[in-house]
Amino acid sequence: MATQGQVITCKAAVAWEPNKPLVIEDVQVAPPQAGEVRVKVLYTALCHTDAYTWSGKDPEGLFPCVLGHEAAGIVESVGEGVTEVQPGDHVIPCYQAECRECKFCKSGKTNLCGKVRAATGVGVMMNDRKSRFSINGKPIYHFMGTSTFSQYTVVHDVSVAKIDPVAPLEKVCLLGCGVPTGLGAVWNTAKVEPGSIVAVFGLGTVGLAVAEGAKAAGASRIIGIDIDSKKFDRAKNFGVTEFINPKEHEQPIQQVIVDLTDGGVDYSFECIGNVSVMRSALECCHKGWGTSVIVGVAASGQEISTRPFQLVTGRVWKGTAFGGFKSRSQVPSLVDKYLKKEIKVDEYITHNLTLADINKAFDLMHDGDCLRVVLDMFV
Ligand SMILES: NC(=O)c1ccc[n+]([C@@H]2O[C@H](COP(=O)([O-])OP(=O)(O)OC[C@H]3O[C@@H](n4cnc5c(N)ncnc54)[C@H](O)[C@@H]3O)[C@@H](O)[C@H]2O)c1
Ligand SMILES: N[C@@H](CCC(=O)N[C@@H](CSCO)C(=O)NCC(=O)O)C(=O)O
Ligand SMILES: [Zn+2]
Ligand SMILES: [Zn+2]
After folding, report:
1. Which residue ranges does the record assign to the Alcohol dehydrogenase-like N-terminal domain (predicted)?
2. Given this model, what pLDDT does residue 56 score?
């Protein structure tokens, strides 16, 4: 039955309140308006940012909402004026939009886009400042402009990347967030050079992707730091050459790293979201040139600090969103790289579940063995 132009009723995991189990509901998804695309989401993974917003610590977290931002699917229908995708196209929703027209997009200095960010930050679509999700008339907020924990979602046309249809959607859904973020933090934000010494704080999906990116960039040493020593074995397969567990040292971890590296690392990456680790990550950098990139997302109210002398003496503090990749332009190339076996994706998937099991999937994220859980949305 043709669904174009109709309201679709489908299953979605609704976060009614912070920290309360998500509920699988029958949700009404309105047709896409001008400049919008309705996507049938076939697979979605969970990212720690979903857990962060669900926890209630995200100042932009609004409830009730449909979370989810790491997914792949097929375009079901498009609204007026949408030219770059059409029904049947295979796509990855992109929480970081790319309109190619705004001040940010035209600057050539950033992958951030200003076109729809004000609307996505308050859980609505830009056209009419309303949600396309509802349950019996009650609106349910969007999340990050993607809301992929629903069998159908509506996104802005600037927030969807068309990809090669041969790519397995159950794998490349990961290219919607964590893996590109880690790779891009190294390649685009830090621009790690061959021979560099790199420190990666946090060996989850994002940290491992940093290690993978650093190995590809020719780093000579990749030091992984995690409070869970079990992480090292797996991390070796992603390029980590040495491991430090801060719990096994009396000295501050930055001092341990400075001593091990003749004055500090060339690049460090914080992939946890812990502001005190962010300080260590900056302070383990080499005087004069060491650069630290903040990747982890810290909760509302958290602030970073260091002695300004750390910056006066040449260390550089940076941050990255989606690894600096321009989403619509570059996600398709990442998919191609995966198809050519130039980047890993399958190796980050440790669990496969269904939408009905989404709360179990959130629980699994606390398990040390878990990297990404991929949900099959239609089983
Ligand atoms: N900037 C972006 O665009 C972006 C994109 C994706 C994810 N993120 C953020 O990146 C962070 C990492 O995401 P992930 O999915 O890899 O998370 P994860 O929870 O899988 O990994 C975090 C790792 O850090 C380790 N850890 C925790 N506390 C530690 C400490 N004090 N010292 C050392 N290690 C510690 C954990 O054992 C775990 O291995 C999250 O904050 C997430 O929200 C940011
Ligand atoms: N609402 C959050 C923002 C958290 C944040 O920084 N998000 C990252 C992506 S994390 C993906 O897993 C990001 O891209 N930020 C840039 C942007 O949101 O435009 C908060 O306020 O803490
Ligand atoms: Zn994410
Ligand atoms: Zn833009």
Report:
1. 34-163
2. 95
